[in-house]
Structure formats: structure tokens, C-alpha cells
């Protein structure tokens, strides 16, 4: 009979998800930080984001958030700007849709910002809706 040598079983690996319904304090940007909206997921913990200072930056999801907080296209995030690379930034925090609405009410985010909760995986932001028309084809 094998001995239990591990640090727990299947339920430990699954996790508890304790912070799901927990209300957290709203975090505002500081010096060297900027709000951004994720436009495209690139893989390997990277994404393309449009910062609200008008720059498009390549963002890296920091290790603390990597497997705990899932970042998707359309999410509002707080990024830490790099002093030595202006075209790159690090994602520090992901805002929930409710928190993003509060930031918009406080005037931190531009009024034109769309807070997309349901952007599908693989779909880019800003694409216009394309209507497909199908004609009936008679099979012979």
C-alpha cells in the first residue's frame, strides 16, 4: 500500500477560492502607473493594451497574478510603466467590472471607455460586427 508523501490531495490542488465574493478597497493609480484596457491576449503571460494616456503597450502579467487572476481582452487593468522601456509595461492589478464602473464615476477613466464584460476568447476589441448573409442553394 503506498504511503501518502504529498502535501495534500485533489482538493488541495483545486484550491479554495476564498477571495471570490470579498469586497476590496478601490486602488487608484500612483506615479509611474497608468490605467489600460487589454485589447489582445498574446499568450505566455503577455497582452497588448491600450493605455489611457494614448499609448499602445505590450504588457506582461506579473507572476503574482499569473495563475490566480485571469486577465481577458476588454478588462480594465492597472499597469506599472517601465522607466527604461516606454513601449512595455507590467500588469499590477485587474479591476472587476464594478470597480471599473466606480473608477469611471470618479473621473479616473475617460467617459468613452467601454467596460466589456463579455469579450470572447480569440476576439479582438474594436472589431465591427460583421453580418453574414447566406443565400439558399438548391442541391441537385
TrEMBL record:
GO terms for molecular function: RNA binding; translation initiation factor activity. Residues 16-28 have a biased composition (Basic and acidic residues). Keywords: Initiation factor, Protein biosynthesis. Residues 1-15 have a biased composition (Basic residues). Pfam families: eIF-1a. It comes from the Eukaryota. Residues 1-28 are annotated as: Disordered. Residues 22-96 form the S1-like domain. PROSITE patterns: IF1A, S1_IF1_TYPE. NCBIfam families: eIF-1A (TIGR00523). Seems to be required for maximal rate of protein biosynthesis. Enhances ribosome dissociation into subunits and stabilizes the binding of the initiator Met-tRNA(I) to 40 S ribosomal subunits. Belongs to the eIF-1A family. This is Eukaryotic translation initiation factor 4C. It comes from Compsopogon caeruleus. The lineage of its organism: Eukaryota, Rhodophyta, Compsopogonophyceae, Compsopogonales, Compsopogonaceae.
Amino acid at each position: 500500500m503506498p504511503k501518502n508523501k504529498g502535501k495534500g490531495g485533489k482538493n488541495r490542488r483545486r484550491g479554495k477560492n476564498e477571495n471570490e465574493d470579498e469586497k476590496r478597497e478601490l486602488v487608484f493609480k500612483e506615479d509611474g502607473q497608468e490605467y489600460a484596457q487589454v485589447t489582445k491576449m498574446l499568450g505566455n503571460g503577455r497582452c497588448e493594451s491600450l493605455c489611457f494616456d494614448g499609448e499602445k503597450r505590450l504588457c506582461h502579467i506579473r507572476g503574482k497574478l499569473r495563475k490566480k487572476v485571469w486577465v481577458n481582452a476588454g478588462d480594465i487593468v492597472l499597469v506599472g510603466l517601465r522607466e527604461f522601456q516606454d513601449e512595455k509595461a507590467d500588469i499590477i492589478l485587474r479591476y472587476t467590472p464594478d470597480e471599473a464602473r466606480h473608477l469611471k464615476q470618479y473621473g479616473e477613466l475617460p467617459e468613452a471607455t467601454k467596460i466589456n464584460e463579455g469579450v470572447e476568447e480569440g476576439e479582438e476589441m474594436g472589431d465591427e460586427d460583421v453580418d453574414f448573409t447566406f443565400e439558399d442553394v438548391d442541391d441537385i
